[in-house]
Specification:
This protein is an all-alpha fold and about 280 residues long. The chain has one domain. Helix content is about 75%, strand content about 5%. Helix 7 crosses helix 10 and helix 9 packs antiparallel against helix 10.
Length: about 280
């Protein structure tokens, strides 16, 4: 199993890095769109739609919304898009607002299931999870040095997860959300947070930039990424499944790999937009 997980992880990393650094900013959005559509397929199943035609219909609906979002942003498929920042801001605010609501739902589980447990409401939740993720990654990638900023986002989420895992194993005693994910602890949460604070300090020194700026980008993204993991765990627990899918040998589904990114990306992108950090023309 470990060997299978490692091989899958290496293949995924190679595919992602090739797309991230090998594709122009606009074309990278198509790659992310494909990942989002696989996530939509899995989310439909988590929402209680096991039939192939139902999952396909939901994926088509998500595709239509992605096209609508692209047109709203001013993206028409060009390699180096010039996006409408006001439109981006609006969609990112919607995405970040959703995660504020999601925090309350996770905190209130299982009682909160009465508010979101219906199939249609879970499908709506999927739209609020998936569409802002695509918008955020498209925006971040089209910045100057956008590929490296996307990589930074991934690093923040990975540190929050791995730092939380190792700190939780060593020091974990107090459960973070026992009804949702019994393995997560407050000590692990603190470990991931401290790991990312250290990352912000290192980056501020290495890039000769403001520590406050790096903290503004890194800390909220780190904190909220944990919520993405918890939300998916909550929905899977409600659906009675262990993994979101089986497309990735040894890892489960796409959503199992990107749950932290779905929460972290909109927050990271909005912080980037609001701060004006690294802002410039479209990426290449």
């Amino acid at each position: 199993m470990l060997k299978q997980r490692v091989i899958t992880a290496l293949v995924l990393a190679a595919i992602f890095l090739t797309a991230l650094f090998g594709l122009p900013a606009g074309y990278f959005s198509f790659f992310i769109g494909a990942v989002v559509l696989i996530g939509a397929w899995e989310w439909a199943n988590l929402s209680g739609l096991p039939a192939v035609w139902q999952r396909l219909a939901y994926s088509v609906a998500v595709f239509a919304l992605l096209v609508g979002a692209a047109l709203y942003l001013g993206f028409e498929g060009e390699a180096s898009p010039r996006l409408n920042n006001l439109a981006i801001r609006d969609l990112l605010i919607v995405g970040c607002s959703w995660w504020a609501v999601a925090l309350l739902l996770v905190q209130g589980y299982p009682s909160s299931a009465v508010l979101w447990g219906h199939k249609l409401l879970r499908l709506l939740m999927g739209l609020l999870v998936l569409i802002p993720t695509w918008v955020a990654l498209v925006y971040v990638r089209q910045q100057a040095n956008g590929a490296w900023l996307v990589l930074l986002l991934m690093l923040i989420v990975a540190l929050a997860d791995s730092g939380g895992y190792f700190a939780g194993r060593r020091f974990g005693k107090h459960k973070l959300a026992p009804a949702v994910s019994p393995g997560k602890t407050w000590e692990g949460f603190a470990g991931g947070f401290l790991a990312n604070c250290l990352l912000a300090v290192i980056l501020s020194q290495a890039l000769n930039t403001s520590l406050l700026l790096m903290l503004v980008l890194v800390v909220p993204t780190s904190l909220i990424s944990v919520l993405g993991d918890l939300l998916e765990s909550m929905v899977k627990r409600h659906a009675g499944v262990k993994d979101s899918g089986s497309i990735l040998p040894g890892h489960g589904g796409i959503l199992d790999r990107v749950d932290g990114i779905t929460a972290g990306a909109p927050v990271f992108a909005l912080a980037l937009l609001a701060s004006g950090a690294f802002a410039a023309g479209a990426g290449v």
